[in-house]
Amino acid sequence: MGSIRVENVVKRFGKVEALKGVRLQVQDQEFLVLLGPSGCGKTTLLRIVAGLETPTQGEVYIGERRVTHLPPRLRGIAMVFQNYAIFPHLTVYENVAFGLRMKRRPEAAIRQKVREVAALLRIEELLERYPAQLSGGQRQRVAVARALAVEPEVLLMDEPLSNLDALLRLEMRAELKRLLKETRTTTLYVTHDQVEAMSLADRIAVMRQGEIVQLGTPTEIYHHPADTFVGGFIGNPPMNFLPVVAEGGQVVLDGLRLPSPAERGPLLLGIRAEDLEVFPEPVEGGFAARVLVVEPLGPHLQLTLEREGTTFRALADPGFAAAPGATLYLRPKEGRVRFFHPETGKAL
Amino acid sequence: MRVWPWLLALAFTLWVLLPIYLIALSAFSPREAVYAWPKAFLPGSLSLETLRFFFGVEGVWRATATSLVVAGLTVAFSLLLGAPAGYALARFPFPGRDAFRVLLILTRAFPIVVLALPLAVLFLRVGLYDTPLGVALVHTALTLPFAVLVSASLFLSIPKELEEAAWTLGCTRTQAFVKVVLPLALPGLAATAIFAFITSWNEVFAASVLTLQNKTLTAYLLTLLDESPLPFKFAGGFFLVVPALVFLFLVRRYLFTLWGISHR
Amino acid sequence: MNTRYLPYLLILPSVLFLLLFFGWPVLSAFLLAFREGEGWGLGQFRRMAQDLYFQDALRNTLLLTAVIVPLQVALALGMALLLPRLGGGRDLFLYFWTIPLGISDLAAGIVWLAIFTERGYLNSLLHALGLLDTPTGWLTYEHPTALFLSVVAAEVWRATPLVLLILVAGLQLIPKELIEAAEVFGATPWVRFWRITLPLLKPSLQVALILRTVLAFEVFAVVVALGGRNLPVLAGEAYFWYADYQNPGVAAAYAVLILGISLAATFLYLKALRVREEVYG
């Protein structure tokens, strides 16, 4: 069983509290992504699961075993590092075979297993080479092959794609997805790239300042962010937040009337750029805004607009005629508006 | 490109190499050429006579052997004591690390003269006087701070992730060190070893003060300086220089790690 | 993994070793030097100071240091600044110029003995130029200045490469952009050297000066190889008192004196060339 359970893990570095009591459960065969800005504690959490750091408090379970104080080699894990950490003095073959040799597998079994994962990662041609003779993408494949060769209960990946150039990253991303579906290995994956997280994850845990702020499927997280931080962090462009005031259980923005979760008082209205329909003329259920910037991005036109001192973004068809200074009218799509508390930022 | 930097560079090179050429010339000249007047600057008749005479002198071979033993022990001590400490400096941010660094750097302000004399007195008492082991211990005191600092910078240049990867793949700390860190650090450690070897091979003062019968080559030559004829000195000088040339060739990649960087 | 004690375990052997072979001897040298019969006193120092060779040894050592060290720094600085102008030849020249690094002081003394001795290469050259008729011994008591200069030549030759290496390493740390920026603003090479390169090189210069000065105070084998005891120096006297006169007390007094001036010089350099943190800011 390759599940991971993290219970109330606290990690302090001196006075800095990197993790503030994290709980997390990764199901067997699940691909879970830890997503967050740099310094949020996601890598620390991964390293604690790996056994490379010891938690100040709390427990880690892999399968049903408590592994909190076990060294990495006894945890049944494998890890892919951000800089790949391929052993430069060993051939690709020996790199992939390294973990198997440590397990004292018979030579024939090692040879077979190395061939197998090499085929899986399409690096059969490279087995006799040294890492210095490999490109970045090839090293990446070797690192993944080396980790999969030991058939770990749990695969840990620390920003494995961040050192690749943009094109290669797309390719490897798709490849990883295929691979991990095939091998059905439980995976805990750290990244700061929300697109990567969305594309790969079964579930995403969004982290911020040492805490998990939201845990859910990519769709849930995208459409129902738990707070303004998640909404702003996920999606490109980020979610728009417009300050509004509720009165009599209703929010009114020009022609737009929405039932409000609060009877009265200030609120934040959250809406994604692609969920705003853009009209050149006043429209029923729409509100007005002034165009600041027009950016033709290819598949659509990205508009930066301003209303009552707040800037926000909307997407229009590429052929839409808009000029800076013009006034446009925007109407949210049905059911896509979210409300947040203006101070705490929590979803209402 | 202008010519004068090259001329200047060639002049410097000549300044460095000419004396070495001249000592080699003296060492390979027959005896009468050593006393000739005026001397020829080009090799007239090369001969091994002078060198043969040098090695024929009683005690030279023995002193050479002693020098090798002392240098070998110095290398072993420096690495065995220095590499672990260097590893600690490179990998752990432990309290007291800076104090340890300062201690290492501080040792440079203390002349070997100060170390050698009291240790001679101590060694007389504990039976280490006039032994290769005793000399090697003092030489290790000279090389150890370098060995620690150099190996620290070596280990620092090996990414920690390589070791962590080895741990996750089933290695204990020791196994990871032996299988991953050591092979990668080996060339640098070899350079450190050569450095320790040559420091010991070259050292005169402590070796002279700490020995009586079992002198190292440098110490032995020093005692013979007064009474020995010029050809003997020149052959000896040349014989002392040769390892230096080999040594510099072997460690040229690590020049800055061994001296430049480890001095900050 | 519990690694809290591991680093201490790893440094323990070398700490113990250094305490035993640095801490103890330094302490013990003081005890030895200040021992007088059954009690304590300056007797050893008095004997040292009254010795015939003492004043010469002290003067020669200080004078040698005062001449050698600046010469080495100047030469090394010139060589270090020359290197970048040599394009692809840089590494080769650096290799040649650092060859004396591995040569011992005794060997260096003998090498230069071949040049300065009576029938040596220098005299042969002077003869060829018609400046000298018969072999003349420069390395004798009658020619103290010539002997002094020979020692200077040998020491400068032997130990300049060490300074060179430290300065080259220091120069590599200076961001190129700084010098290029100065060039853009119209600074002449001379101004760039004095206002940018030299101040930024201060930390390296400090290291080189301390190291070379301490080593120059210990100068011994070069002098003995070239002139025996014709040019007395402090470390040489320590050796002779210990080995020839069998008097460790006076020898220790010399050692303590060398340590004293070494520490004083180090302190002076640290004060005079104070390296401010913002230099690298």
UniProtKB/TrEMBL annotation, chain A:
PROSITE patterns: ABC_TRANSPORTER_1, ABC_TRANSPORTER_2
SMART domains in the cross-refs: AAA
Keyword ATP-binding annotated: yes
CDD domains: ABC_MalK_N (cd03301)
ABC transporter domain mapped to chain residues: 4-234
Record key words, sorted: ATP-binding, Nucleotide-binding, Transport
Molecular function terms, GO-annotated: ATP binding
Pfam families to which the protein is assigned, alphabetical: ABC_tran, TOBE_2
InterPro entries the UniProt entry points to: AAA+_ATPase, ABC_transporter-like_ATP-bd, ABC_transporter-like_CS, ABC_transpr_MalK-like, ABC_transpr_MalK/UgpC-like, Mo/tungstate-bd_C_term_dom, NA-bd_OB-fold, P-loop_NTPase
Protein name, as recorded: ABC transporter ATP-binding protein
Upper lineage: Bacteria, Thermotogati, Deinococcota, Deinococci, Thermales
UniProtKB/TrEMBL annotation, chain B:
Transmembrane segments: 60-90, 102-124, 136-156, 176-198, 234-255
Keywords: Cell membrane, Membrane, Transmembrane, Transmembrane helix, Transport
UniProt KW Cell cycle keyword: no
Predominant location category: membrane
Domain of life from the UniProt record: Bacteria
Family annotation (Pfam families): BPD_transp_1
Domain ABC transmembrane type-1: 64-251
Intracellular or extracellular location(s): Cell membrane
Protein's recorded name: Carbohydrate ABC transporter permease
Originating organism: Thermus composti
UniProtKB/TrEMBL annotation, chain C:
Transmembrane segments: 62-82, 94-115, 146-169, 209-231, 251-270
Family annotation (Pfam families): BPD_transp_1
InterPro entries, A to Z: MetI-like, MetI-like_sf, Sugar_ABC_transporter
Sequence ranges assigned to domain ABC transmembrane type-1 in this UniProt record: 58-269
Topological category with respect to the lipid bilayer: Multi-pass membrane protein
Compartments, as annotated in UniProt: Cell membrane; Membrane
Main location: membrane
Record keywords: Membrane, Transmembrane, Transmembrane helix, Transport
Family annotation (PANTHER family): GLUCOSE IMPORT SYSTEM PERMEASE PROTEIN GLCT (PTHR43759:SF1), TREHALOSE TRANSPORT SYSTEM PERMEASE PROTEIN SUGA (PTHR43759)
Annotated family: Belongs to the binding-protein-dependent transport system permease family.
Name of the protein: Carbohydrate ABC transporter permease
